[in-house]
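User: hey, got a sec? need CsbD family protein folded
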Amino acid sequence: MKRQQPMDDNLLAAKILALRSPALHSPLATRTMSNKADAAAKDAEGKLESALGELTGDTGHQIKGKAKQVQASAMNAAEDLKDGAKAVAQKVSDAAAKLADG
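Assistant: Yep! Here you go:
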């Protein structure tokens, strides 16, 4: 019989958290977290590229960096809009259920 390797405490904690967190199992929640992370990464990339352009005097990098920051802002705004629409839809659903229950 093969012996199992002891599990790292951090890995064990992550597995327990994953099993206990239903929101993490939702593809929509995962997608939203991913989109917000993508926006944060795009913003950081834009700031770095803009700073590089300022250091080197390359206006092309400055403009590209600022454009990436604007794109990140738009990505965040889209996610905020989606979150707001979901909240409104949930409130409508709750109100309809309340009316149906009488």
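Quick note: The first helix runs from residue 9 to 20. Let me know if you need anything else on CsbD family protein.
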